[in-house]
Amino acid sequence: MTKISNKLISVLFPCVAIIVACNNNKTTEENTKAILDTVSLSNKNFALAYQDGSKIVATSIDTMKQISFGGATDPAISPDGNKLAYTVTDSAGHRGIWIADMESKSQLQLQVNSGNYYQAMWSPGGKSVAFNQFNSKNLWKIGIIKTDNTDYVMLDSASKINVYAPTWKNENELIGHDLTNLYTFNRSGKLTDTKNIATLIGKAFSIASNNHFFYSKDGQKLIFNAGNSDVLEGLTGPAEAVYILDLTSKKINRISPEGMNVPYVFVTADDRIFYSGAEKPFTDSKIYVADLNGSIKTIVDRGTNPTGALK
Q1: Residue 234 in contact with residue 282, Cβ under 8 Å?
Q2: What value does the mean pLDDT take over residues 88-94?
Q3: Rounded to an integer, what is the distance from CA 195 to the centroid of its chain?
Q4: CB 144 within 8 Å of CB 156
Q5: Among the listed residues 90, 59, 64, 68, the one whose alpha carbon sits nearest the alpha carbon of residue 18
Q6: Distance CA 4, CA 64 (A)
Q7: Distance CA 215, CA 100 (A)
Q8: 54-71: b or e for each residue (b if 16 or more CB lie within 10 Å)?
Q9: 56-88 pLDDT tens trace
Q10: Does the pTM of the predicted model rise above 0.90?
Q11: Cα–Cα nearest to 126, from 86, 82, 167
Q12: Considering only CA atoms, which of 253, 290, 257, 288 is closest in space to residue 273?
């Protein structure tokens, strides 16, 4: 997909600069096909959000409408495609999460008990976000808050450990990990399940704090990215890939192809797997979407950290 930006209108806000790009000319068949084939959102304004260098981009299904946010990271599009959560770092190095309405362009900072919180993950219903936050004990925890700044909760049942990379198992449960164990919490913060990661996926993988785990909609599969033993010439650091664990058969299938490094994966509540990966020389990352059967399509020719709205 090639971005369209024939006409730019710049709107400045206190935290970030928003650039709205609209093109009234007919898009090329290739561009239209690329996005329509992968994200079918006939009644939604925006379908995909991702990082493009120093800015984040949200795009509509036909690429006729795009919004770019300068000075922001961690794009997270809401399930209905109408809002965007993102992280802003201030001059003192404090990170915080903001929510923008992509039609009105109004913005709201989430108010939580932390000076360092980032990487929002929308609940399946789109009313709340989960995120990582640094607490008063200098530990990483998972926070939840509604987008109107109510019902803030910090999930702190396992208070002596860091818990990273929150994702939603369903509307009422979240998961995170501490590099060793995979934890399930309910919305009130109660720890309801603990699974050893090595027991789940084997010892051949390495887990970092930014690796995410997602349950499929039916709860029968676990989708994740992790370090592996691939030796990729020219790559600095361990290679990573996307995998699916069938929790019944215990079989693990690799989704991303060999020769590609995949440091980021995101799974929608309707089981579409978005990921960004780079091949040799590992300088330009593309964005792909896959299904649970491993069918893959390229949707953006330059970008990282994708999130998708629901169909």
Answers
A1: yes
A2: 91
A3: 23
A4: no
A5: 68
A6: 7
A7: 27
A8: ebbbbbbbbbbbbbbbee
A9: 999 986 667 788 888 899 999 999 999 999 999
A10: no
A11: 82
A12: 290
